[in-house]
Design goal:
- The complex is a heterodimer of chains A (20) and B (134).
- By secondary structure, chain A is an all-alpha fold.
- Chain A is built from 1 helix and no strands.
- The mean pLDDT of chain A is 86.
- Chain B is mainly α and 134 residues long.
- Chain B is built from 9 helices and no strands.
- The chains are: A mainly alpha (20), B mainly alpha (134).
């Protein structure tokens, strides 16, 4: 489960805009 | 220059294009107990971006299953309740048949984005949390 949550978190973060 | 919080009120995309705006919107959504809408929207965007990266088919399948299990499988979840049944069964078929396509979550993302644009985003712009911030 952890690895799935980590994978999801990594995916969500990858779509976030970079800090301006 | 236009203050960021003024740009956030121009459109949902301008809000989601700014980390501070995302943070404030997520805090508001968490208060409304629907932060999953935003996380799902970003997860769909992140999944589509995988196509451009050199990630393995196995990782794409694992991620597609994780998104499906976390946001769609449980019919009581806020995301699952807002997505049309036909869209949910399409995604289920893709996962079950291992037809992992970069665009498999696009329709579901569009439906959630429409919900946010027509509902949660306008309410956010009138919320205490946004008005206090401005």
């Amino acid at each position: 489960i952890d690895s799935e949550d980590d994978l999801l978190q990594e995916c969500i973060s990858s779509a976030m805009p970079k800090k301006k | 220059p236009t203050p960021p919080y003024v740009k956030w009120a121009e459109s949902l995309h301008s809000l989601l294009d700014d980390q501070d705006g995302i943070q404030l919107f997520r805090t508001f959504l968490r208060q409304e107990d629907c932060a999953d809408l935003l996380d799902f929207w970003f997860a769909c965007s992140g999944f589509r971006k995988l196509e451009a990266s050199e990630c393995s088919e196995e990782k794409k399948l694992k991620l597609a299953k994780a998104i499906y299990k976390k946001y769609i499988l449980d019919n009581n979840g806020i995301v699952s309740r807002q997505i049309k049944p036909a869209t949910k069964s399409f995604i289920k078929d893709c996962v079950m048949k291992l037809h992992i396509d970069p665009a498999m979550f696009d329709q579901a993302q569009t439906e959630i984005q429409t919900l946010m644009e027509e509902n949660t985003y306008p309410v956010f712009l009138k919320s205490d949390i946004y008005l206090e911030y401005t």
